[in-house]
């Protein structure tokens, strides 16, 4: 059970999928959790699930790529839940297409959410971590960072997050703040369901096909990623920083 004095965590893109599972896991670990998504209403179901399990959470609507909205969100979280000392930059979007068909807008929106979003959230939240002399930042990369056909925009953003993470680790380490990156492989979520639908494949056979190429012979679940976030945010992981861990059921993307 989280107490009013519990450390506060922020998870972005936490209405569904990996973000929702991570928010619930961190609440189970004893954090009070700010559940950020584009619309506050969309974040409510995750908050209700946390509260039903005896945890403490706050739904916050914000576009993580908008500096004013980010500052307002972090200020509100600090006032209503307490100063945030954990930040999980999970919010993400895909706009898959072959390079010659990626529009300017589809390039920009992917950079806006992943890169500008993680930058703005980290810049706003780090102050509270520095004050507390303790913090954990976890950025969600992807196996796509290694290159993936149809994802020049997404792969660029996810590779960028790895360099961002390592730099935060170097700058913030002396203040007790670690920064690490998780690169998920194929995880069964609304995002991968939408991909299957877009390319005209039935979900179950699509999952089976993907699982057949994964050494542990199954699709990943949001909880697989939440578990890894939990490790990085734990007290005992204070000497682990600037790392990228591929959570993909095997060594390759
Ligand atoms: N100039 C002109 N033509 C070109 C060209 C260029 N530079 N490059 C390729 N082409 C042509 C090809 O020759 C081909 O032409 P033909 O059909 O005449 O042979 C055509 O463009 C491309 O046709 P395709 O049918 O191969 O491709 P498509 O445009 O229909 O779509 C795709 C390809 C974008 C890759 C699509 O299949 C797709 O979106 N696949 C899924 C991508 C994916 O894996 N996404 C991951 C989602 S999960 C996730 O993101 C979570 C995570 O973190 C892992």
From TrEMBL:
Q: Name one GO molecular function term.
A: oxidoreductase activity
The keyword Coiled coil belongs to this UniProt entry's keyword annotation: no
Task: Tell me which InterPro entries the record gives.
Answer: KR_dom, NAD(P)-bd_dom_sf, Sc_DH/Rdtase_CS, SDR, SDR_fam
- The protein here is known as 3-oxoacyl-[acyl-carrier protein] reductase
Q: Which GO terms describe its biological process?
A: monocarboxylic acid metabolic process
Ketoreductase domain sequence ranges: 7-185
Cite the Gene3D superfamilies for this sequence: NAD(P)-binding Rossmann-like Domain
Q: Which UniProt keywords apply?
A: NADP, Oxidoreductase
Entry-linked PANTHER family: 3-OXOACYL-(ACYL-CARRIER-PROTEIN) REDUCTASE, 3-OXOACYL-[ACYL-CARRIER-PROTEIN] REDUCTASE FABG
Per the UniProt entry, what species is this protein from, by scientific name? Blastococcus xanthinilyticus
Q: Which family does it belong to?
A: Belongs to the short-chain dehydrogenases/reductases (SDR) family.
């Amino acid at each position: 059970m989280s107490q009013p004095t519990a450390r506060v965590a922020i998870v972005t893109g936490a209405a569904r999928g990996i973000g929702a599972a991570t928010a619930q896991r961190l609440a189970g670990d004893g954090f009070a959790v700010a559940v950020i998504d584009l619309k506050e209403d969309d974040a409510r179901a995750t908050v209700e699930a946390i509260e039903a399990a005896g945890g403490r959470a706050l739904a916050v609507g914000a576009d993580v790529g908008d500096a004013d909205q980010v500052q307002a969100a972090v200020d509100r979280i600090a006032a209503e839940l307490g100063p945030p000392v954990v930040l999980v930059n999970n919010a993400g979007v895909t706009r898959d297409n072959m390079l010659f068909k990626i529009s300017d807008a589809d390039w920009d929106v992917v950079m806006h959410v992943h890169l500008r979003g993680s930058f703005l959230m980290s810049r706003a939240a780090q102050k509270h971590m520095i004050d507390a002399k303790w913090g954990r930042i976890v950025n969600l990369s992807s196996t796509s960072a290694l290159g993936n056909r149809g994802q020049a925009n997404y792969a660029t953003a996810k590779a960028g997050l790895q360099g961002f993470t390592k730099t935060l680790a170097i700058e913030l380490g002396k203040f007790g703040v670690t920064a690490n990156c998780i690169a998920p492989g194929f995880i069964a979520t609304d995002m991968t369901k939408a991909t299957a639908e877009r390319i005209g494949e039935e979900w179950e056979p699509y999952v089976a096909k993907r699982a057949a190429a994964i050494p542990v012979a199954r699709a990943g679940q949001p909880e697989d990623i939440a578990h890894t976030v939990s490790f990085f945010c734990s007290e005992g992981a204070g000497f682990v920083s600037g790392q990228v861990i591929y959570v993909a059921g095997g060594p390759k993307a």
